[in-house]
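Posting for a labmate who doesn't have an account.
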Amino acid sequence: MTQANCRMPDILNTADGEERRVGVEIELSGLGYDELVRVMARLLGGTATVDSRYVTRLDTSMGEFTIELDSDPIKDLDLADERLPRSIRELGGQAMGVIDAAAERVVPLEIISPPLPFTQMDEIDSLMQELRRAGALGSREAIYFAFGLQLNPELPDLEPATLVRYFQAFACLYDWLKARHQIDVSRKFTTYIEPWSNRYTDRLMADDYNPGQSRLMEDYLEFNPTRNRALDLLPLFAHLDQALLERHVRDPRIKSRPTLHYRLPDCDIDNPDWHFSTVWNDWVVLEQLASNATDLAELRAMFRERRKISLHNLTHSWQETTANWLRSKGYV
């Protein structure tokens, strides 16, 4: 029986009464691609179907998982392509074997879950522990590994006021979340987990900030026209208004969905002291803060005060201030 380690937020259903769902993306190494497919099939009792080279679908009782190599150039490589030099094409399978062996050492393998009910997160926690026992490795294994654990939580509703609360809660908690996740040095050198622009957060945190949907999107995209943010809002914006988004950003990798795209945590899966449930429970802190208007207003006021020059601000970090406040309020 799965031990309950993952906390649940107060708001578990959408405005339509359906249980909220979340997609989970896990990057790892240590196992060959075929080996990972076999391990996942054994752990989840699923049936594997090969979609294409380095892309396999796994049909399970939890839904359809995808296992793939996280590199489009490698996945799409075709040594029979006549545009390649003849000497390369003639090597055929031998060359492909060398490429595969090299790719599996430096390119992450990725497990992409179907949208899962929040209440099934303990099963993902157990799955991660089993993958660790099977030999999965995470970010700390080598300097060139920058493996992430990404969450795509469905929102309770898509009203602008709800979105603003979630955005404000994330801006308040970014430093605390980053410290909690202990981002590996390999990911610190990357650009895809950057915080939001300070000019944007100053606008977002104002007490009178009450935009409609279009204004909300325009404000964000003016300062953050990129996927490379720790909380990436572009999939959500594609769902809300594709045409408006494309006036600022055109990127075929953006997938429309009514979720946030939380990219900050690293995947430290081979560390026995690291757990998926810790990452998830920290996200639940954000959920709870977003649903408590009084506490959110208090922390936002502290955040704005933090922008001022004072002895306290010079001698205390915002991460420390946030951690103490969360403890005092019983969030952690």
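Reply:
Got it, the structure tokens are right above this. The CA atoms of residues 151 and 195 lie 16 Å apart.
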